[in-house]
Amino acid sequence: MTLLSRKADYALLILSYLHTQVGGNAREIAAKFGLSRAFVANILKELGHKGFVTSTRGVKGGYVLQRASATITLAELLEAVEDGFQLTMCKEHTAEATCEVEHVCPVKAPMLEIQRRIMALLRGVTLADIFAPTTGPSVLTTLGVIARPNLQPATTTA
């Protein structure tokens, strides 16, 4: 089981390509990652509709990031391409819930809290943090998302 769909994974790959190449087209991106050109084109179209990329038509046309990657959070991207990123089927507003045991569920509140914390963490990570981590301590190491290099495991004394 993965938390991210293939579409979300590919959206990240596509945006990383546009970040590093400062633009590109569906054919180039599909070839670079060995993906279906049609699927890449559909994701690019959706990313354009949702304000992540801008397209230019014509022979020299293609896609570029509409905003700097440092201004786009991972949470924002996932919420856009996943139509509301959710850890579980539980919802804060029960009118939408389809769970038959919601009224007696002991894990709904804790799972909603975990969802809230995950989203708070993802709101602190920008695409720039993922695409071009700094050589010094990055937000990803500070948040504990990526292990700090050269750290020895803690030892305990008996």
Structural description of this entry:
With 158 residues, the protein is mainly alpha-helical. Helix content is 44%, strand content 5%. It has a two-stranded antiparallel ribbon. α2 (26-33) crosses α3 (37-49).
Write the layout of secondary structure elements.
Elements: H1 6-21, H2 26-33, H3 37-49, E1 53-56, E2 62-65, H4 74-81, H5 108-123, H6 127-131, H7 139-142
Antiparallel strand pairs: 1-2
Helix pairs in contact: 1-3, 2-3
The CATH homologous superfamily name of the domain at 6-85 and 125-142 equals Winged helix-like DNA-binding domain superfamily/Winged helix DNA-binding domain
Span between N and C termini? 39 Å
Report strand order across the widest sheet: 1-2
- Count, helices: 7
CATH class of the domain at 6-85 and 125-142: Mainly Alpha
The Cα radius of gyration reads: 19 Å
Largest sheet: 2 strands, antiparallel
Alpha-beta classification: mainly alpha
Can you write the helix and strand succession as a string?
HHHEEHHHH
The total beta strand count reads: 2
Mean pLDDT: 82
Regions with little confidence, pLDDT below 50 for 5+ residues: 151-158
